[in-house]
Each structure stands twice: as C-alpha cells, then as structure tokens.
Amino acid sequence: MLALDTSRATVQQFIARMSERYGFSSEALTALLAQAESQTGILEAMSKPAERTLAWYSYRERFVNEQRIVEGVAFWQEHRELLDDIARAKGVPPQYLVAILGIETYYGRITGRYRVIDALSTLAFDYPPRSSYFTDELEHFLLLTRDESIDPLVPLGSYAGAMGVPQFMPRSVRKYAVDGDGDGKRDLWTDWPDIVASVANYFLVHGWQPGAPVLVEAEIDQAHAHDLDTRRLELTETVGSLHEKGASFDPTLSDDTPAMLIAADEPNAMRFRVGLGNFHVITRYNRSAYYAMAVHDLARELTARVFSDDAAG
Known about the structure:
This protein has helices at residues 9-22, 26-33, 40-46, 50-53, 56-63, 66-78, 80-90, 94-105, 116-126, 131-147, 170-176, 192-205, 239-244, 277-285, 289-312; strands at residues 2-3, 37-38, 114-115, 156-157, 215-220, 237-238, 247-248, 258-266, 269-275. It contains 15 helices and nine strands.
C-alpha cells in the first residue's frame, strides 16, 4: 500500500475540478486525499471478477448454496413485515429484495473491508481502463460524505467502492437511496427500512414491472442455434423473434414481449434461458447475466423454502 501522491497531474486536476465545481477547499481536499492509499490488491481483484473466471454452474454454486438459503430464510422471517410493506408499496416481491441482499453481502454480514476512499482513489488514478468511471464515483463519494456529514475516511466497502448492505456505488447512493423510516437519514449500513426500501426503489426506477415474469427456461432447435446470440445484455429480441429462431419456451408470453437469450453452461450440457424485462432490471444492478440468474435462482429457492415452512407450520 502506498499513500496517494497528490502531486500527480491527474490528482491535481481532480482537486481543481472539485474546487471549481463544488467549492471544495483545495487545501483540505489535498490533505484528505493524501490519507488515501493506493492498493495493488484492489487492482488485482478488478482483473479477475467471478463473472469472467467461472462457468455458470460454478458461479451458481458459489452464490446459490445451502448456507445462503438458510440465512436468507431466517432474514426473510425476521423482517417479514418490513419486506411485505415495501413489496406492497413498490411492487418488488420480497424474495428478490432478500436475494439481492444475500448475494451482495450475505444479508449484511459481509459489507467489505476496503476503505471506500482507498478503493475509489486507487481505481480513479491507477486503473486506466476505467479511470473516468471511478473518478466520477470518487466525485460522488466526496459529495455524498459532505452532504450527509460522513467522515470520508470511515466508510468501508468492496474493492470497487460499493457501499453498505446493498453495495450501492456512490452515484447510486445519491440517486436511488431513500429514507425508508422517515428519520431524515439514508443509512445503508444498519437501517433495514432504508436498506430494503432503497433496493426496491432502485428496481422500480429502472423499470421493474410488478407481477411480470423474470426468467423462463428454453429449449433450442439445434438446427437454428447459429442464428441465436446469447452474448448481449439488452432486450434486443422479442418472444416472437426467439420463437422464429428455434427457441421453445412459455407459449403464454405475448410475441411482442422484449426478451434476451442467455446461455447457462452446465457440467455436461448447455442450458438456455430467456430473460424478460424484469431480468433486464436486475442486470442494471450488476451488468452480468450470471449475477441476474443467481439472484433469480436464489429468490426461487428462498420462496420455496419460506412457503414450505409456512405450510408446515
């Protein structure tokens, strides 16, 4: 770990921008950033995310496993009234809210060990492929901590600077976090009404359709497999166009329903699934088909377990 060199041109330009645009004291910001540490571990982590290094079946096993299901059921039961209230208000089912929190931080148990200022400074100034993105996130982080009277040296998060139980990036905290219990604060670390309501708000703002399906299983006519593109995360197909290209799945869906085809590799075969509008919303949380499938599959497992427990008694 090395202290950030604030004399570097890129750092000086950032400080000048924050001073000119937002009235930050150049001297105070220089002193703050001098306490940030550039960490090689953060750069190494950025180079090998699970989505790029694991097959789907291995990725699923990492995120949809018995421990995460058991802890998710316990979380759902403990916070059932809150989850039901927010689901009624926002139209996002409890199982998806719980699944997001489970995959992101094990229901708040593991929220990250890096100081956010270190993660964002490292990536803003020492990670050229995405320097612009992380420079903007560092800007939002400093604005957030100033506006909400948070010591910028205190918050911990992921190696990418994601914060709190829902792992929002600073821009998302400022834009989508809400005060779920009316106490005048938006606390994504310890305040469950704020945390759950903020995740639901994120989904709703990004187009979640209450009651609409998320993901359906599909079979592919191998004679037409070459016509199908499973690499895109956008709704560039429709149910009708996928049917025409040899995909067989839920016949009750309208032909004009936007859709995407997803490949889900298993140990000895390739499965195909069709993501719909609400699946696309989950990919706005994390731009990975693996991630969105894991959220869906965990939500399904949690639903089955919770309602089985209810029936038993």
